[in-house]
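Extended Data, panel c. Modelled sequence:
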Amino acid sequence: MLETFFNPKSIAVIGASNKPESVGYGVMKGLLQGFVMNSGYGKPFQGKIFPVNPNLERVLSLECFKTVLEVKENIDLAVICVPAAIVPNIIAQCGKKKIKNVIVLSAGFAETGAKGKELQEKLVLTALKYKINLLGPNCLGFLRPSTGLNVSFALTSPPPGSVAFITQSGALADSVIDWAVKERYAFSAIISVGNSALLDSSDFIEWAGEDPFTKVVTAYIEGVKDGRKLMNVISKVSKKKPVIILKGGRTETGSKAVGSHTAALSGNAKVFETAVIQSGGVIADSVEDLFDFAKVLSEQPPLKQNAVAVVTNSGAGGVLCADYCERYNVKLVELKKETIKKLESTKLMSPAYSKRNPLDIVGDALPETFNAAITTLLQEEYISGLFVIQTIQTMTQPVLDAEIVVEAFKKFKKPVICVFMGGKFSSKAVNTLQNNNIPDFNDIKKAVKAMSLLAGNKGKII
C-alpha cells in the first residue's frame, strides 16, 4: 500500500518557496540536496521535483507551476505546505491529478480546537473520496536515510542505519535527528505522523515491519485512536522485529498537554503499556532508553542463552553489574574450573584476580591481560555474551583494550557490551568501539538493561 509513498519517482511541493524561513523552502532544500544544514549524510532526491506556487515562476532554479494540474507528468507524492484553510481544496486538486500519496505539513487543524477539527474532517473526507494515502496534517514529513530520501523540513539528515522511528511529535523528530548526527545513531526511516488524520502510527509500524532496511521499530506515541489495531500490529511485527514504544502523556499533567499538541487522546498509560507488553512489545522509559535499546538490538546478535560473563578491572564495576543483572534478569554464569585453569595457564592473571564471575582482573590490568580474559571467556560454549567494564588507571590503555574487544567480537560473534568508564581519556577508545558496532555506555545500569533485551526479556525495562 505504501510502496510508492516511500519510494516515489516524482514529488510535487505545493507551497514551495524561495524564502529561507519558510517550510516550503526547507522541503525543497531537503529534496534538492538532502538537507538545509549539511551533516555529511544527506543526498539529493534522484527523481523529478515539481515546485507548485501560483505566485512564483521559479523556485531554487526549478520551473514553478501554478497548480499540480498544470504538471503534465505523473506525480507519485505531493507535499502540502500552505495555509490550513485551503488544504482541502489542494487535496481535491491532487485527487483530480490522480496523486495517491499526500503529506500535509500544515498546522491549524484538530489540534487548535473545534474549527480546526471541522477543517480536518473536511480534509479527511476529500482524501477518502480520491483514495489518497494521507500523512499528517501538522507533521514534519519523513526521512529515509537508508535510501537517501528527505521529504521533510528537518534541518538535516541523520546517518543511515536500520532503526525506524515513528513519532507523533515533529519537534522531537527534529531534535532526535540533530542528536543522532552527534552520537552517530543511525536510522532507516524517521516518520512524523502529526495528527494522524488517516494514516497513523499503526500503519507505519506495520510498514516498518516489512521494510527490508529496518531491523528495529521504535515509536513515540501520545494517543491512539484505535488501540486494538495498534496492538494487533505490534503483535504481528514483534514476531519478526523488536518493537519498542515510548508513551507520552503518562501523567495527568502530561495527558492534558497531549490534546493541545497533536489532537490525540492520551488514554490510560498503564493500560496502554500493559497491552503493548502483552502484544510482544517493549516499553522504554525515556528517549535515551528508546534509542539505546534500538541501537543494541540493531547492532548485536541475541544471546543464544541467558548466560553472561563480566570482565572488569574494577571491583566496584563487577559488584554493580552483578546487582543490576539480578534486577534485570541477566544471568551471570558460574565459571567452570576448566575455565579458571585456562585463565591461569596464560600466566597473565594477577595473583589478586577474582577467579569467579564477575571476573575482576584488578586495576593494574594491561591490554594483554584484558585480551587473555576476554578471549578465554568468549571461546567457552557455555558463555553466550560478555560485559567489558573498564575503569581508567595510570597503566590502562583504553584504545588498545577497545581494539582487543573489537577483534574478539568479530572472531566469536557473541554479544559484547562495554562500559568504558571515564571521559576525555576514554573518548578515542569509545569511538573505536562504536565505529565497530559495539555499544558502549557511560553507566553500568544502561548496559545491563540493554543486555536484558538481548536475553529475550521484554516488558517495561526501567
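The chain has a mean pLDDT of 95. This feature is highlighted in the accompanying rendering.
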